[in-house]
């Protein structure tokens, strides 16, 4: 939109430069009136209930997405902890089994 506005003003400026003084004055006033209308339309759009509703919908959607992400991360954290605990238990069991086998082998070697 900004690009279109700049192009419009550039065309208006070139048109004014090619006209007589009275035509330039009329064109300048027309450009001011057009700018005022654009400003009013922008204010109307910015304050319209529809735009406010869209903003509220975006805010609510972001809050919902945040809540879902928080729950998912909490669940993932719990599952990771449980998995680490299970892996630790299995490692402890494997170490105990290895110790028992070493002790048995040492006892057998003494016989």
Total strand segments: 0
Report the major sheet. none
Helices and strands, in N-to-C order?
HHH
Low-confidence stretches: none
Q: In terms of structural class, how would the helical and strand content be classed? A: mainly alpha
Query: What is the overall silhouette?
Result: rod-shaped
Helix percent band: over 70%
Q: Mean pLDDT, rounded to whole units?
A: 82
**CA-based gyration radius:** 38 Å
Q: What proportion of the residues form beta strands (DSSP E)?
A: under 5%
Helix tally equals 3
Descriptors:
111 residues; mainly alpha; 3 helices; rod-shaped
Description:
The chain is mainly alpha-helical. The chain has a domain at 1-47. It has helices at residues 2-17, 21-46, 49-110.
Strand and helix map with partners:
Layout: H1 2-17, H2 21-46, H3 49-110
Helix pairs in contact: 1-2
Summed up, what is this model?
With 111 residues, the protein is mostly helical.
């Amino acid at each position: 939109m900004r690009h279109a506005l700049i192009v419009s003003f550039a065309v208006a400026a070139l048109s004014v430069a090619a006209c007589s003084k009275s035509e330039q004055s009329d064109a300048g006033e027309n450009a001011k009136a057009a700018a005022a209308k654009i400003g009013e339309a922008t204010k109307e759009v910015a304050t319209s209930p529809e735009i406010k509703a869209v903003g509220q919908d975006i805010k609510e959607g972001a809050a919902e997405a945040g809540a879902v992400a928080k729950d998912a991360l909490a669940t993932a954290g719990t599952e990771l902890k449980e998995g680490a605990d299970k892996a630790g238990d299995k490692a402890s069991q494997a170490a105990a089994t290895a110790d028992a086998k070493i002790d048995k082998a040492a006892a057998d070697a003494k016989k």
